[in-house]
Amino acid sequence: MILAAAGCTDPDPGPDAAPPPPPAAGSTPRSAPAKPACDARASLRPAGALPAPGKMPAGGYLAAIQKRGRLVLGTSQDSPLFSSRNAFTGRVEGFDIDMGRLIAAAIFGDPGKLQIKVIPHADRTAVLSGDEGEEGQPDAVDLVINTMTANCARWQEVDFSTVYLETGQKLLVAKDSAVDGLDDLAKQKVCAAVGSTSLQNLENAASDPVPVARNGWGECLVAFQQNEVAAISTDDTILAGLAAQDPFAKVVGERFTEEPYAVAVSKRHPDLTRFVNAVLEQSRRDGTWKTIYDRWLGALGPAPQPPAARYR
Protein backbone atom coordinates (compact mmCIF):
# COMPACT_ATOMS: atom_id res chain seq x y z
CA MET A 1 0.00 0.00 0.00
CA ILE A 2 1.32 3.46 -0.85
CA LEU A 3 1.05 5.83 2.08
CA ALA A 4 0.53 9.47 1.10
CA ALA A 5 2.63 11.67 3.37
CA ALA A 6 3.99 15.15 3.18
CA GLY A 7 7.66 15.74 2.70
CA CYS A 8 8.57 14.40 -0.73
CA THR A 9 10.44 17.04 -2.66
CA ASP A 10 8.39 19.15 -5.04
CA PRO A 11 9.88 20.01 -8.46
CA ASP A 12 12.17 23.05 -8.35
CA PRO A 13 10.47 25.90 -10.26
CA GLY A 14 13.88 27.35 -11.16
CA PRO A 15 15.34 30.81 -10.55
CA ASP A 16 13.40 32.45 -13.39
CA ALA A 17 9.97 31.43 -12.17
CA ALA A 18 7.67 34.42 -11.66
CA PRO A 19 6.41 35.04 -8.10
CA PRO A 20 2.66 34.62 -7.53
CA PRO A 21 0.65 37.86 -7.97
CA PRO A 22 -0.42 39.70 -4.80
CA PRO A 23 -4.09 39.45 -3.82
CA ALA A 24 -6.35 42.14 -5.20
CA ALA A 25 -7.19 45.03 -2.87
CA GLY A 26 -10.08 44.22 -0.59
CA SER A 27 -10.01 40.54 -1.41
CA THR A 28 -9.68 37.75 1.12
CA PRO A 29 -6.30 36.03 0.84
CA ARG A 30 -6.63 32.44 -0.33
CA SER A 31 -4.88 29.60 1.41
CA ALA A 32 -1.96 28.05 -0.45
CA PRO A 33 -3.01 25.30 -2.86
CA ALA A 34 -2.57 21.77 -1.56
CA LYS A 35 0.71 20.15 -2.50
CA PRO A 36 0.45 17.17 -4.84
CA ALA A 37 0.76 13.73 -3.28
CA CYS A 38 4.26 12.25 -3.21
CA ASP A 39 5.12 9.98 -6.13
CA ALA A 40 6.89 7.19 -4.26
CA ARG A 41 7.95 5.51 -7.52
CA ALA A 42 9.85 8.54 -8.82
CA SER A 43 13.58 8.68 -8.04
CA LEU A 44 16.66 10.76 -8.88
CA ARG A 45 17.67 10.83 -12.53
CA PRO A 46 21.03 9.19 -13.41
CA ALA A 47 23.87 11.67 -13.88
CA GLY A 48 24.75 10.68 -17.44
CA ALA A 49 26.39 7.47 -18.60
CA LEU A 50 27.82 4.97 -16.13
CA PRO A 51 31.53 5.43 -15.41
CA ALA A 52 33.76 2.48 -16.21
CA PRO A 53 34.14 -0.06 -13.38
CA GLY A 54 37.02 0.88 -11.12
CA LYS A 55 36.91 4.52 -12.22
CA MET A 56 34.34 6.08 -9.91
CA PRO A 57 34.21 9.91 -9.86
CA ALA A 58 36.67 11.40 -7.39
CA GLY A 59 35.46 13.06 -4.23
CA GLY A 60 32.08 11.39 -3.88
CA TYR A 61 30.64 8.45 -2.00
CA LEU A 62 31.20 6.06 -4.90
CA ALA A 63 34.94 6.78 -4.73
CA ALA A 64 34.87 6.02 -0.98
CA ILE A 65 33.20 2.65 -1.65
CA GLN A 66 35.75 1.88 -4.36
CA LYS A 67 38.61 2.70 -2.00
CA ARG A 68 37.15 0.40 0.67
CA GLY A 69 37.09 -2.42 -1.87
CA ARG A 70 33.59 -3.76 -1.32
CA LEU A 71 29.93 -2.74 -1.48
CA VAL A 72 28.01 -3.47 1.75
CA LEU A 73 24.43 -4.64 1.28
CA GLY A 74 21.90 -4.74 4.11
CA THR A 75 19.31 -7.49 3.67
CA SER A 76 17.62 -10.43 5.41
CA GLN A 77 18.35 -14.12 5.25
CA ASP A 78 14.79 -15.45 5.49
CA SER A 79 13.03 -14.13 2.37
CA PRO A 80 12.91 -17.16 0.04
CA LEU A 81 13.71 -16.40 -3.61
CA PHE A 82 14.93 -12.92 -2.65
CA SER A 83 17.49 -13.13 0.15
CA SER A 84 17.67 -16.44 1.99
CA ARG A 85 20.51 -18.62 3.24
CA ASN A 86 21.22 -21.67 1.10
CA ALA A 87 21.23 -24.65 3.47
CA PHE A 88 23.93 -26.43 1.41
CA THR A 89 26.36 -23.57 0.74
CA GLY A 90 25.58 -21.27 3.67
CA ARG A 91 25.45 -18.31 1.27
CA VAL A 92 22.62 -15.79 1.18
CA GLU A 93 21.18 -15.73 -2.33
CA GLY A 94 18.15 -14.65 -4.33
CA PHE A 95 16.70 -11.94 -6.58
CA ASP A 96 17.68 -9.09 -4.23
CA ILE A 97 21.20 -10.43 -3.82
CA ASP A 98 21.63 -10.54 -7.60
CA MET A 99 20.50 -6.91 -7.75
CA GLY A 100 23.28 -6.10 -5.29
CA ARG A 101 25.80 -8.09 -7.33
CA LEU A 102 24.85 -6.04 -10.41
CA ILE A 103 25.67 -2.82 -8.57
CA ALA A 104 28.94 -4.23 -7.20
CA ALA A 105 29.95 -5.31 -10.72
CA ALA A 106 29.27 -1.80 -12.02
CA ILE A 107 31.52 -0.28 -9.33
CA PHE A 108 34.36 -2.79 -9.28
CA GLY A 109 33.99 -4.94 -12.39
CA ASP A 110 33.50 -7.90 -10.02
CA PRO A 111 30.06 -8.95 -8.66
CA GLY A 112 31.83 -10.85 -5.90
CA LYS A 113 32.89 -7.62 -4.19
CA LEU A 114 29.58 -7.58 -2.35
CA GLN A 115 29.51 -7.93 1.43
CA ILE A 116 26.17 -8.98 2.87
CA LYS A 117 25.14 -7.69 6.29
CA VAL A 118 22.03 -9.37 7.69
CA ILE A 119 19.65 -6.85 9.29
CA PRO A 120 16.20 -7.18 10.90
CA HIS A 121 13.21 -6.18 8.75
CA ALA A 122 12.32 -3.49 11.28
CA ASP A 123 15.74 -1.82 10.89
CA ARG A 124 15.78 -1.41 7.11
CA THR A 125 15.48 2.38 7.18
CA ALA A 126 17.23 2.89 10.53
CA VAL A 127 20.54 1.47 9.27
CA LEU A 128 20.60 4.18 6.58
CA SER A 129 19.00 7.18 8.27
CA GLY A 130 21.25 7.60 11.33
CA ASP A 131 24.07 10.10 11.76
CA GLU A 132 26.93 7.61 12.00
CA GLY A 133 28.19 8.27 8.47
CA GLU A 134 30.09 11.41 7.53
CA GLU A 135 29.80 12.95 4.09
CA GLY A 136 32.10 11.13 1.68
CA GLN A 137 32.90 8.34 4.14
CA PRO A 138 31.58 4.77 3.79
CA ASP A 139 28.70 3.85 6.08
CA ALA A 140 28.28 0.50 7.82
CA VAL A 141 25.68 -0.33 5.13
CA ASP A 142 25.74 1.32 1.72
CA LEU A 143 22.28 0.29 0.58
CA VAL A 144 19.37 -1.95 1.52
CA ILE A 145 17.79 -4.37 -0.95
CA ASN A 146 15.24 -6.46 0.92
CA THR A 147 11.80 -6.76 -0.73
CA MET A 148 11.33 -3.18 0.45
CA THR A 149 8.29 -1.22 -0.66
CA ALA A 150 8.99 2.39 -1.63
CA ASN A 151 6.33 4.57 -0.03
CA CYS A 152 6.07 8.21 0.94
CA ALA A 153 6.46 7.57 4.67
CA ARG A 154 9.79 5.81 4.09
CA TRP A 155 10.91 8.54 1.69
CA GLN A 156 11.03 10.80 4.77
CA GLU A 157 13.87 8.65 6.15
CA VAL A 158 15.75 7.35 3.09
CA ASP A 159 15.99 7.80 -0.66
CA PHE A 160 14.88 5.07 -3.06
CA SER A 161 15.98 3.96 -6.49
CA THR A 162 13.54 3.49 -9.31
CA VAL A 163 11.30 0.45 -8.91
CA TYR A 164 12.93 -2.86 -9.81
CA LEU A 165 9.91 -5.15 -9.17
CA GLU A 166 6.16 -4.68 -8.82
CA THR A 167 4.36 -7.04 -6.44
CA GLY A 168 1.22 -7.09 -4.31
CA GLN A 169 -0.02 -8.58 -1.05
CA LYS A 170 -1.88 -11.92 -0.95
CA LEU A 171 -2.45 -14.74 1.56
CA LEU A 172 -0.84 -18.08 2.32
CA VAL A 173 -3.21 -20.61 3.90
CA ALA A 174 -3.50 -24.37 4.38
CA LYS A 175 -4.22 -26.35 1.22
CA ASP A 176 -7.54 -27.58 2.60
CA SER A 177 -8.63 -24.07 3.67
CA ALA A 178 -11.71 -22.46 2.13
CA VAL A 179 -10.24 -18.97 2.65
CA ASP A 180 -10.05 -17.05 -0.62
CA GLY A 181 -9.30 -13.54 0.58
CA LEU A 182 -8.79 -11.22 3.52
CA ASP A 183 -12.57 -10.87 3.99
CA ASP A 184 -12.66 -14.52 5.07
CA LEU A 185 -10.24 -13.94 7.96
CA ALA A 186 -12.24 -11.67 10.27
CA LYS A 187 -11.07 -12.10 13.89
CA GLN A 188 -8.52 -14.72 12.79
CA LYS A 189 -4.77 -14.47 13.36
CA VAL A 190 -2.65 -13.52 10.35
CA CYS A 191 1.15 -13.27 10.52
CA ALA A 192 3.40 -10.62 8.98
CA ALA A 193 6.94 -9.39 9.64
CA VAL A 194 7.71 -6.57 12.05
CA GLY A 195 8.38 -3.31 10.22
CA SER A 196 6.71 -4.44 6.97
CA THR A 197 3.99 -2.68 5.02
CA SER A 198 2.22 -6.05 5.06
CA LEU A 199 1.73 -5.80 8.83
CA GLN A 200 0.46 -2.23 8.54
CA ASN A 201 -1.98 -3.26 5.81
CA LEU A 202 -3.38 -5.98 8.09
CA GLU A 203 -3.77 -3.47 10.92
CA ASN A 204 -5.75 -1.18 8.58
CA ALA A 205 -7.87 -3.91 6.96
CA ALA A 206 -11.64 -3.34 7.14
CA SER A 207 -12.27 -7.09 7.56
CA ASP A 208 -10.60 -6.88 11.00
CA PRO A 209 -8.10 -9.76 11.01
CA VAL A 210 -5.87 -10.13 14.05
CA PRO A 211 -2.31 -9.14 13.04
CA VAL A 212 0.46 -11.24 14.55
CA ALA A 213 3.96 -9.75 14.25
CA ARG A 214 7.07 -11.91 13.94
CA ASN A 215 10.68 -10.89 13.32
CA GLY A 216 10.79 -12.40 9.83
CA TRP A 217 9.01 -14.57 7.30
CA GLY A 218 10.74 -17.70 8.57
CA GLU A 219 9.18 -17.13 11.99
CA CYS A 220 5.80 -16.55 10.36
CA LEU A 221 6.09 -19.86 8.54
CA VAL A 222 6.88 -21.68 11.81
CA ALA A 223 3.87 -20.02 13.49
CA PHE A 224 1.67 -21.09 10.56
CA GLN A 225 2.95 -24.69 10.65
CA GLN A 226 2.32 -24.86 14.39
CA ASN A 227 -1.27 -23.64 13.89
CA GLU A 228 -0.62 -20.46 15.85
CA VAL A 229 -1.98 -18.37 12.95
CA ALA A 230 -4.55 -19.09 10.25
CA ALA A 231 -2.57 -17.41 7.48
CA ILE A 232 0.49 -15.45 6.46
CA SER A 233 0.06 -12.28 4.45
CA THR A 234 2.71 -10.49 2.45
CA ASP A 235 3.75 -9.93 -1.16
CA ASP A 236 2.83 -12.77 -3.50
CA THR A 237 6.43 -13.27 -4.61
CA ILE A 238 7.57 -13.86 -1.02
CA LEU A 239 4.61 -16.14 -0.36
CA ALA A 240 5.58 -18.23 -3.40
CA GLY A 241 8.92 -18.91 -1.74
CA LEU A 242 7.26 -19.85 1.54
CA ALA A 243 4.77 -22.15 -0.21
CA ALA A 244 7.67 -23.94 -1.91
CA GLN A 245 8.88 -24.91 1.59
CA ASP A 246 5.53 -26.29 2.76
CA PRO A 247 3.63 -28.84 0.62
CA PHE A 248 0.52 -28.28 2.74
CA ALA A 249 0.26 -24.55 1.98
CA LYS A 250 -1.10 -22.53 -0.94
CA VAL A 251 -1.26 -18.89 -2.01
CA VAL A 252 -4.78 -17.55 -2.55
CA GLY A 253 -6.75 -14.46 -3.50
CA GLU A 254 -6.15 -11.42 -5.64
CA ARG A 255 -3.55 -8.78 -4.87
CA PHE A 256 -5.08 -6.26 -2.50
CA THR A 257 -2.16 -3.83 -2.38
CA GLU A 258 0.55 -2.48 -4.67
CA GLU A 259 4.12 -3.03 -3.47
CA PRO A 260 6.81 -1.40 -5.64
CA TYR A 261 10.23 -2.72 -4.58
CA ALA A 262 13.17 -0.32 -4.70
CA VAL A 263 16.73 -0.03 -3.41
CA ALA A 264 17.04 2.13 -0.28
CA VAL A 265 20.00 4.52 0.04
CA SER A 266 20.95 7.13 2.64
CA LYS A 267 19.79 10.66 1.84
CA ARG A 268 23.40 11.72 2.40
CA HIS A 269 24.50 9.96 -0.80
CA PRO A 270 22.42 11.03 -3.82
CA ASP A 271 25.36 10.16 -6.09
CA LEU A 272 24.92 6.49 -5.12
CA THR A 273 21.15 6.65 -5.75
CA ARG A 274 21.72 8.12 -9.23
CA PHE A 275 24.37 5.48 -9.93
CA VAL A 276 22.04 2.64 -8.85
CA ASN A 277 19.35 4.05 -11.16
CA ALA A 278 21.78 3.99 -14.08
CA VAL A 279 22.63 0.35 -13.31
CA LEU A 280 18.94 -0.57 -13.15
CA GLU A 281 18.27 1.25 -16.43
CA GLN A 282 21.06 -0.69 -18.12
CA SER A 283 19.71 -4.00 -16.75
CA ARG A 284 16.31 -3.27 -18.27
CA ARG A 285 17.83 -2.56 -21.68
CA ASP A 286 20.38 -5.37 -21.95
CA GLY A 287 18.15 -8.20 -20.66
CA THR A 288 19.98 -8.75 -17.36
CA TRP A 289 16.84 -7.94 -15.39
CA LYS A 290 14.91 -10.64 -17.26
CA THR A 291 17.71 -13.17 -16.69
CA ILE A 292 17.56 -12.54 -12.94
CA TYR A 293 13.77 -12.76 -12.93
CA ASP A 294 13.80 -16.06 -14.81
CA ARG A 295 16.41 -17.49 -12.44
CA TRP A 296 14.51 -16.76 -9.23
CA LEU A 297 10.87 -16.13 -10.14
CA GLY A 298 10.49 -18.08 -13.39
CA ALA A 299 8.23 -20.63 -11.66
CA LEU A 300 5.61 -17.87 -11.34
CA GLY A 301 5.36 -17.61 -15.13
CA PRO A 302 7.02 -15.71 -17.96
CA ALA A 303 8.96 -12.62 -16.97
CA PRO A 304 6.89 -9.43 -17.29
CA GLN A 305 8.30 -6.23 -18.66
CA PRO A 306 10.54 -4.66 -16.01
CA PRO A 307 8.99 -1.64 -14.28
CA ALA A 308 9.62 1.51 -16.27
CA ALA A 309 11.80 4.10 -14.54
CA ARG A 310 10.18 7.29 -13.25
CA TYR A 311 12.23 10.30 -12.25
CA ARG A 312 11.70 13.44 -10.20
UniProtKB/TrEMBL annotation:
**Known Pfam families for this protein?**
SBP_bac_3
Q: Where is the composition biased (Pro residues)?
A: 12-24
| GO CC terms | extracellular region; outer membrane-bounded periplasmic space
**Compositional bias ranges of the Low complexity kind:** 1-11, 25-34
Q: Which GO terms describe its biological process?
A: amino acid transport
- Where are the residues of the annotated region Disordered? 1-40
Family named by the database record: Belongs to the bacterial solute-binding protein 3 family.
Q: Which PANTHER family match?
A: ABC TRANSPORTER GLUTAMINE-BINDING PROTEIN GLNH, AMINO ACID ABC TRANSPORTER PERMEASE
Kindly provide the name given to this protein in its UniProt entry.
Answer: Putative ABC transporter substrate-binding protein
This protein's species is Actinoplanes missouriensis (strain ATCC 14538 / DSM 43046 / CBS 188.64 / JCM 3121 / NBRC 102363 / NCIMB 12654 / NRRL B-3342 / UNCC 431)
